[in-house]
Design goal:
Rossmann fold; globular; about 230 residues; 7 helices; alpha/beta; 5 strands
C-alpha cells in the first residue's frame, strides 16, 4: 500500500523493486561444457487498480503507526477477500476541504484510480468555516474525481462546535445534499460507533486509537464492498 502524506505527520517511503539478475558468463576451459543459457526475463510486476483514501488526519492515521491506519487495515481486508486493488493513503493531517481541492489532481495521477474515499470537512467545521464554502470545495473535488473516471464514496462527518444549532444543522445536511446532487454512496458518519468513546480514541478524544481505527475500517468496508462487487460484474 502506498502512502501519500505531504504534510508533517507521516512520510512513507515508496519501495521500488528491481528485477536485475547477474548475466550468465561463458567459462573457457578444456571441458568444452556449453555456456549456461541466459535466464528467462521475469514478467513485470502487476499494476493494480487503486483505491485512494483521501482525507485528513483521520485518514492519515494520526498518532498511529502506518500499519494501524484505516487504509492499511482496509488493504488487509481486500487482500483477504481476494480483491485485487492497491489502497493509497492520501491523508494529510490538518487538511481542509480547500487543501484537498488544491491537491486532488496530482493525487489522482498515480495509476488507475477506480475509487476515492472522500473524508474531509471536520477541520473546516472546527474552524467555523461557512458550510457553503466546504460544500463548494467538496463538490469540486467530486467533479474532478468523476471526470477522471473514479467513483467517489463520500464520508459524512459531524463535529463539536460552539457555532450554534443552525451551523450544526448545516453540517448535518451538507453531506446528504452532496450525495444526492452527485448521486454518490454515502457513509452517514465516518466515526460511527467510535466517536465519543474514550476507550476507542487517543487521549485527545478526537482521533481513533488502534482499536477504534479497526472499527472505522469496518465501517468504510461495509459501504465500499457493494461498489467493488458492482465493479466486478462490469
Amino acid at each position: 500500500m502506498k502512502i501519500f502524506l505531504p504534510g508533517l505527520v507521516f512520510l512513507s517511503t515508496a519501495f521500488l523493486f528491481g528485477c536485475g539478475g547477474d548475466s550468465s558468463r561463458s567459462t573457457s576451459g578444456t571441458s568444452g561444457a556449453p555456456a549456461a543459457a541466459p535466464a528467462p526475463n521475469q514478467a513485470p510486476a502487476q499494476t493494480l487498480p487503486k483505491i485512494v483514501a483521501f482525507g485528513d488526519s483521520l485518514t492519515a492515521g494520526y498518532g498511529l503507526s502506518p500499519k494501524e491506519s484505516y487504509p492499511s487495515i482496509l488493504q488487509q481486508k481486500l487482500d483477504a477477500e481476494g480483491y485485487k486493488y492497491e489502497v493509497v493513503n492520501a491523508g494529510v493531517s490538518g487538511d481542509t476541504s480547500a487543501g484537498g481541492l488544491r491537491r486532488i489532481d496530482w493525487s489522482l495521477e498515480d495509476g488507475d484510480v477506480r475509487f476515492i474515499i472522500l473524508e474531509l470537512g471536520a477541520n473546516d467545521f472546527l474552524r467555523g468555516q461557512p458550510v457553503k464554502e466546504t460544500r463548494r470545495n467538496l463538490s469540486q473535488i467530486i467533479e474532478r474525481a468523476q471526470a477522471r473516471g473514479a467513483q467517489v464514496l463520500l464520508a459524512g462527518m459531524y463535529t463539536t462546535t460552539n457555532a450554534g444549532d443552525a451551523y450544526l444543522k448545516e453540517i448535518d445536511e451538507v453531506f446528504k445534499s452532496l450525495a444526492d446532487d452527485h448521486d454518490l454512496p454515502l457513509i452517514p458518519f465516518f466515526l460511527e460507533n467510535v466517536a465519543g468513546k474514550r476507550d476507542l480514541n487517543l487521549d485527545d478524544g478526537v482521533h481513533p486509537n488502534a482499536e477504534g481505527t479497526k472499527i472505522v475500517a469496518d465501517t468504510v468496508y461495509k459501504y465500499l464492498k457493494p461498489l467493488l462487487e458492482a465493479e466486478d460484474k462490469k
